[in-house]
Description:
Elements: H1 5-16, E1 44-48, H2 53-64, E2 72-75, H3 106-113, H4 117-120, E3 128-131, E4 136-139, H5 142-157, H6 169-184, H7 186-191, H8 196-216, H9 233-252, H10 264-274, H11 285-295
Parallel strand pairs: 1-2
Antiparallel strand pairs: 1-3, 3-4
Residues 25, 49, 52, 54, 84, 123, 125-127, 140-142 line the site of glutathione.
Amino acid sequence: MEPTDEQAGAWTKAFESGKFIRKSSEFRDFIAPNDAFDTESQRYHLYVSHACPWAHRTLITSVLLGLDEHITFDVVDWRMNRNGSWSFNPEEEGATADTVNGETSLEGIYNRAFDGWKESGRIGTVPVLWDRKHSTIVNNESREIVRMFDTLAQSGLGNGRTLCPDELKTDIDQMIDANYESVNNGVYKSGFARTQAAYDESVTSLFNRLDELEAHLEGREWLVGDGKGQLTEADICLFPTLARFDLVYVVHFKCNLRRIIDYPNLQAFVERMLNQPGIRETCHWHHIKAHYFWSHESINAFRIIPLGPLEGAHTK
Ligand SMILES: N[C@@H](CCC(=O)N[C@@H](CS)C(=O)NCC(=O)O)C(=O)O
């Protein structure tokens, strides 16, 4: 997807002001019954990094919807190379080979789906949802992959559960939107800010939103729904960021006004999520911690990985 002139202008302004700008995802097809990307078992394959909060959303969704037997996945090495690319390294604990296409790097997957990808200077991100049938990428935007997994589950492949009931869809989307810029992307904007003003702005809005969420979760278990709420996509989209917060973002991205452990309701939310069957197994703390501190030389030149913290989601 090429940016419009208007977007390009806005990006230039944001770049000059020292702000971190996330590029939009390129592949935006959807799985739908009887469509080009039909709902079929064992047809789709995920490429993920266990370090990546966006990819983590898709694995959690697959587990909660009981899609594990229907969607296969491979895991890249936690080391992201200097140019921002991912590779496959089955020698690394918790990582795998590319079992579908036999590529050694994620770039190879993007190149298969998009002729001239390598020459385009783009960098392939995780997660990637691959279609074995058409040998192409269906989608590389986590929020949309999460939503289309619900479609797969509704077609009878999953355990009968939905994480996006029709009556809650508007509230779920509003909650995901409200957390995206301030929290999910907010930690990155804080960490990669190149001016004091850009950093101050991101950290302030990040913690304002965390304060709001702390208040919102008073007497509730989940973000959306009546009473104590019910587990939905809104929780899945927030959790990976909160789970990485004390372990990585507080130090590495300088998000240090408070820790999640200092927010009783947010900490209880993280623990509640970790206690859902199968979710703890999706949290690979070594991949998470080592990835960030090792990969971002621009903000951690000597790649020193801190020893702590002693307490946090990773110890629960
Ligand atoms: N909007 C995408 C963002 C995905 C993303 O940025 N993934 C990161 C890992 S956390 C990545 O692969 N980055 C590679 C790079 O930017 O070089 C989504 O939500 O799926």
